Amino acid sequence: MGHLRDYILRRILISLPTLLGISILTFAIIHLAPGGPLSFMLEMQVEVDPEMIIYMEKQLGLDKPIYIQYFIWLNNIITGDLGLSYISHIPVSKMITAFWKNTLKLALVGLTISMLISVPIGIISAVKKDSIIDNSSRVISLLGVSLPNYWLGLILIYLFSLRLGWFPVFGIRTIGATYSNAFEDIYDQIIHMVLPILTATFGGSALTIRLVRSSMLDVLNQDYIRTARAKGVKERVVIYKHALRNALLPVVTLVGLSMGFILSGSVTLETVFAWPGLGRYMVESTFLRDYPAIMAMTMIIATMVVLSNLITDITYAILDPRIRY
Cα–Cα distance between 117 and 140 in angstroms, integer? Predict the structure, then answer.
């Protein structure tokens, strides 16, 4: 237990400089990029007094040197203040609170369905190598890995929304709809989630199927599996008790990384389906050069990735004690 505790502490200490470095790079890049929070006024050809722009920059603190701006932001973020949006003048924390549930709902449902589908298919493909099931799953997984999410999403919208009219085109609820009970509201949300989840599940399942299959094939060729079979152990016990546990180690990494990249992966998905989540909010903030929102979202993504890697490493250390030493 002492070795595991020391291992966790070392990983946490390594993570802190990583987050600090990400914050410095992000802050520098967005401030050095062309344009700024007030540039949209000029791009829209709105007549604004130059003195007013200077005054607004002073009010936002944009007239200070970049390193001073960074230290002000760092001091605020340490105290839990994510800043005030330059565009909407609403605290960024309130915007995140309004959107995070939608993103988490979409991501967790998609990831759960993906795991429930892909892990059994990967196991069956490995056990029945070179069969019709195996060849079919390999073709489907290859398509899933190759097709971009945004392209697949647009194709699904064209087929099932515009041509067949089975599902809504965009959004989380029907605009202007009234519900007589809670079940109608839930049903409306579910039909809006079908196409985004189908898009996310197809790509995620494809990668997991390939990973589970290759990992299972590697484990099934190990000596201890041959020994178990030679002793007369039932094939189901060999597969699910002896082989599956070791074969799922790479899948633990994949699931951990998937959890870490929930926000960054939702950017294209939420943009295509106009889903009101954090990914879409980040895209809009980037276009408008809303620095506090960009920094907050970037640091949330970075923290999630670091935490997911930390949890994955800890899980590995628990499953394989050799990693702790």
Answer: 13
Q: How many CB atoms lie within 10 A of CB 199?
A: 25
Quick: pLDDT tens for 193-226.
888 888 888 877 887 888 888 888 887 777 777 7
Residue 163 burial by CB count (10 A; 0-12/13-18/19+): exposed, middle or buried?
Answer: exposed
What's the CA gap between 322 and 325, in Å, rounded? 6
**In this structure, what token pair is assigned to residue 256?**
């951990």
Q: Label residue 62 by pLDDT band (50, 70, 90).
A: confident
β-bridge partners, 91:
84
Q: Which range is least confidently modeled, 127-141, 214-228, 238-252, 285-299?
A: 238-252
Per-residue pLDDT averaged across 296-317, rounded? Answer: 79
d(CA 9, CA 182): 46
Exposed, middle or buried, 2 (CB in 10 Å: 0-12/13-18/19+)? exposed
Task: Calculate the CA 276 to chain-centre distance.
Answer: 15
Confidence of residue 260 (pLDDT cuts 50, 70, 90): low
Determine the Cα–Cα distance for residues 170 and 198; give it in Å rounded to an integer: 14
Helices and strands in the chain, H and E counts: 15, 0
Find residue 84's DSSP bridge partners. 91
Distance CA(172)–CA(156), nearest Å, equals 16
Collapse the DSSP code of 277 into the 3-class scheme (helix H, G, I; strand E, B; otherwise coil) and give the result.
coil
Centre a 10 Å sphere on the Cβ of residue 255 and count the other Cβ atoms it contains: 20
Residues in the chain: 325
Per-residue CA distances from 279 to 128, 203, 284 (Å): 40, 18, 9
Confidence of residue 314 (pLDDT cuts 50, 70, 90): confident
